[in-house]
Amino acid sequence: MKLLVTGGAGYIGSHVVKAAQSAGHSCVVVDNLSTGLTSRIDCPALELDLASRDASAQLVQLMREHNFDSVIHLAARKQVGESVQKPEEYFLDNLGGLANLLLAMREVGLKSLVFSSSAATYGMPDVDKVTEDYPGVPINPYGQTKLIGEMMLKNAEVWGLRGVNLRYFNVAGAASQELADTAALNLIPIAINAVKAGKAPVVFGTDYPTPDGSCIRDYVHVEDLALAHLAAVDYLAGANQEFTTFNVGTGVGASVIEVLDALKRASGIDFEVAIGERRAGDPPRLVADVSRIDRVLGFRTKHDLASIVQSAWDAS
Ligand SMILES: NC(=O)c1ccc[n+]([C@@H]2O[C@H](COP(=O)([O-])OP(=O)(O)OC[C@H]3O[C@@H](n4cnc5c(N)ncnc54)[C@H](O)[C@@H]3O)[C@@H](O)[C@H]2O)c1
Fold first, then answer.
1. Residue 72: CB within 6 Å of ligand 1?
2. DSSP calls for 15-59
3. Does the model's pTM come out above 0.85?
């Protein structure tokens, strides 16, 4: 298949491009290079800000040139804290960019779209494992842009769009140093940076109602996540597929303390750990129910926490 990958020069997008090429697909990337790096990809790329005024017209031209089978839309801003400070920029980039993309797809009759959504759409769920039907409410503008983005795909069914929302849980790891996440925004890269700087990584809160008192998350290897996109594209290529939302996680939770223990083993360094106060807006537990993606797409992750942390350490 021929795939248009927006945000393909980013951390996850470049893993998607690599996995797609390995599976025999060809890719064209659209990216404004705000956080993306062309060194991560080996395919044609158009430098374009999807939220810019003439983006839709440029996309139409690109789509007419290439005759794509499907679009994987990853391009977005992703910093939760920044989204609270600059909500308008998040709505403009994440939703304006998606609107321009949908306008162009409608214009050329391109009707297959996989959308990068997030577990941030669930807000603060108080369940053991969160299913896609959980009536969550996002607690920050970033999560709101993802939930509204999902609605935009659903609305586009009116002109025949077939869409899949992939709600990623905590993405980590890397296929190689070149593709590694350069933004230290999540626990694993933040902890690796601290250890490399000779500092103690911080556990924010050890009094949560969890077995060791630290927060529990569902860590998914970026290479597993990349394959979920290909499974979604294949699904959409089938006849009469319905608009669907899938969690992408492992279904297994790991606490902050367990992640740091895994990092001690991966790095071979018995580093100190600092204990900090709870941070606002951190649910004690956020773990995916992955039964729908297993049942509908036949998709299962292969990497466990040790493999995720080892690959992140090796790529750092
Ligand atoms: N990393 C995670 O843990 C995580 C979790 C859930 C969802 N997501 C989503 O996955 C997607 C990819 O995230 P990532 O971690 O690879 O981040 P990233 O910042 O590495 O990648 C985003 C890419 O999109 C590009 N981009 C941003 N705004 C753009 C615009 N207006 N026009 C064109 N290109 C633009 C950037 O240059 C970059 O290459 C995002 O939609 C993000 O919200 C990420």
1. no
2. HHHHHHHHTT-EEEEEE--SS--GGG--S-EEE--TTSTTHHHHH
3. yes
